[in-house]
Amino acid sequence: MIYSIIIINYKTKELTAECIQSLFKQIKTIKFEIIVIDNASGDGSVKFLQEKFGDTIKLITNENNLGFAGANNQGAALAKGDIFLFLNSDTIIEKNFFHDYSDILKQNKQIGIISPRLLTASGENQKSAFGRFPNIFRLITQKTKIDPILDENKKYNIVDWVSGCALIIRRDLFEQIKGWDEKFFLYYEDVDLCKRVKNCGYLSAVANKTTIIHLGGQSLAQSLKKHRHYFRSQDYYFRKHYGFITSLILKLARLPYELIIIIKSVKK
């Protein structure tokens, strides 16, 4: 198997470099390529990464920010591997886990997507790293997300969706579902991808015994902007998978929460 590792850089050049260095340090026994997409950072990231890594990576330079889905699709279109790893720039690889994933994918043809356990910088299991597909009831009862649970007796757990922070998918399956939906600019695109994979008869899984460090949220620090992206993507996801009426009910139910967020941001 050849792995194509696709990383988006958006104003995180030092973190991106640290992520790439951790990959080169740990991955020495498999065939792989690293594709980096600079999403119009405008902060000298391109020159910085070119000087640091040269021809050891493939670097795509965007004049406009295409968002998470659009940039990842760019990387996938250039990729030569038969397995894709979509990896956040704010992650650190501490162990070569690729052989484990190759074994899981070979032995379990029904698994289409797999992710490592995500750890915080302090080494704790990251919350909201995977979960159940959202619907109105689960959103109201806060049951769309599952706190990470390590089952020592299993190599992996089957879940509905995994985070796009470190998402591995077979190339043929990725192409079958036509890649990431670029109508998602940021957030929910990973849930949507896993749902479409499930609709094709495949499963998503979390590998319990492999981990990476995810520093989290380094490229989008503004809280109000973050929430606006989230709500916009949430609306589109519900409209796409559940219809207009359900998405309208969601927006009405969420309105008080949105107003609270706006008021808090104005007071700061």
Describe this structure in a few short sentences.
It contains 9 helices and 11 strands. By secondary structure, it is of the alpha/beta class. The protein starts with a strand and ends with a helix.
Query: What's the Cα radius of gyration?
Result: 18 Å
Strand content: 15-25%
**Largest beta-sheet details:** 9 strands, mixed
Quick one: CATH class of the largest domain?
Answer: Alpha Beta
Q: What is the third-level CATH name, the topology of the largest domain?
A: Spore Coat Polysaccharide Biosynthesis Protein SpsA, Chain A
Low-pLDDT stretches = none
Alpha-carbon distance between the two ends: 51 Å
What is the level-2 CATH architecture name of the largest domain? Alpha-Beta Complex
* Mean of all residue-level pLDDT scores: 89
Regarding quaternary structure, what we see is single chain
Number of strands: 11
Helix fraction? 40-55%
What is the assigned CATH homologous superfamily of the largest domain?
A: Spore Coat Polysaccharide Biosynthesis Protein SpsA, Chain A
What does the overall shape look like?
Answer: globular
Q: What order do the SSEs take from the amino end to the carboxyl end, as H and E? A: EHEHEHEEHEEHEEEHHEHH
- Helix/strand-derived category reads alpha/beta
How many structurally independent domains? 2
Number of helices: 9
